[in-house]
Specification:
Largest sheet: 6 strands, mixed
Pfam families: ABC_tran
Number of strands: 14
Protein name: ABC transporter related protein
Strand content: 25-35%
Distance between the termini: 28 Å
Structural class: alpha/beta
Shape: elongated
Order of helices and strands: EEEHEEHEHHHEHEEEHEEEEH
Helix content: 25-40%
Keywords: ATP-binding, Nucleotide-binding, Transport
Strand order of the largest sheet: 6-7-8-3-9-10
CATH class of the largest domain: Alpha Beta
GO molecular function, one term: ATP hydrolysis activity
Radius of gyration: 21 Å
CATH architecture of the largest domain: 3-Layer(aba) Sandwich
Length: about 290
């Protein structure tokens, strides 16, 4: 089943426009949405969840429009926002009781397990908790409803390295069932290096890349050489370029470099390197947009 489908979505603000031509996430997979701060990650997620009204386009969750069967879809949807909306005057155990009343699939044992793992004090008021602990609570609440689709906006914001590692392990366990899917927005590439099945990169409000994690190393490469040798590479082969007075690094498709690869250093890109080559905008860099 297609858990999430986005087509021709647009949203315009005074100094920013979101334009997403197509996005598809099938059940059983984790898709990471990578982008710098301000790239459009949160706007896209808010449009998907109908928290912000899109101007045009189509959003389907479980192959239905969100507003077609909103209550039923929400029963299958877990959400963690970058700034969690949790009443500060309540205690975690009180929020649990509210959630339990709304969600038929609520799992008390899983909630307790996650709260114990994250060391969340159930008796403190939420405004007394640290930012990281509130985020952990939001994650525990979202997972305890046993959702079929988990939508996460910067969920590791404020988490320490130990908690981030625990969270990644939880995600891996979550999608072991082929019926589950995760759409995970972040700007911390290390969080998704080994957990994402698909990587989507958004920059300036547009999707500049979306494919499987494996395709990054299977289909692309980093070509390195002396600056005065760069002209030997056909410009049509270069997707993105970083060049200084002494050397250059070019992101290329592997199929385009076969004729000259013996003349340069050719390396497989990590997800982080691939991502940085696409979105960095330093004054001394020349960046050619991926098409």
């Amino acid at each position: 089943m297609i858990a999430l489908y986005v087509k021709n979505l647009t949203k315009t603000y005074k100094n920013f426009k979101l334009e997403v031509q197509e996005l598809v996430l099938e059940s059983g997979y984790i898709m990471a949405l990578l982008g710098r701060n301000g790239a459009g990650k949160t706007t896209l997620i808010k449009c998907i969840l109908d928290l912000v009204k899109k101007e045009s386009g189509e959003v389907l969750i479980f192959e239905k429009p969100f507003n077609c069967d909103e209550v039923q879809i929400k029963q299958r949807l877990g959400v963690v926002l970058e700034n969690p909306i949790v009443p500060g005057y309540l205690k975690p155990k009180e929020v649990k009781e509210i959630m339990k009343a709304f969600y038929k699939t609520w799992d008390d044992k899983l909630y307790k397990k996650l709260c114990d793992l994250f060391e969340i004090d159930q008796n403190k008021k939420i405004f007394q908790l640290s930012k990281g602990t509130v985020m952990k609570l939001s994650i525990a609440l979202a997972l305890a409803i046993r959702p079929d689709l988990l939508i996460l906006d910067e969920p590791t914001s404020g988490l320490d390295p130990v908690a981030r590692n625990q969270f990644v392990e939880i995600l891996q366990e979550f999608v072991q069932s082929e019926e589950k899917a995760v759409f995970y927005s972040t700007h911390i590439v290390s969080d998704i290096e080994n957990v994402a099945d698909f990587v989507t990169i958004i920059d300036g409000g547009k999707i500049v890349f979306s494919s499987s994690r494996e395709s990054i190393q299977d289909d692309y490469c980093i070509v390195k050489g002396a600056a005065n040798e760069y002209d030997k590479i056909p410009k049509s082969a270069v997707l993105s370029l970083k060049k200084s007075s002494l050397s250059f690094e070019a992101l290329c498709r592997k199929k385009d470099v076969k004729l000259f690869q013996d003349e340069f250093v050719v390396e497989k890109p990590s997800i982080e390197k691939f991502y940085v080559m696409l979105v960095r905008r330093d004054e001394e860099d020349e960046v050619l947009e991926v098409v």
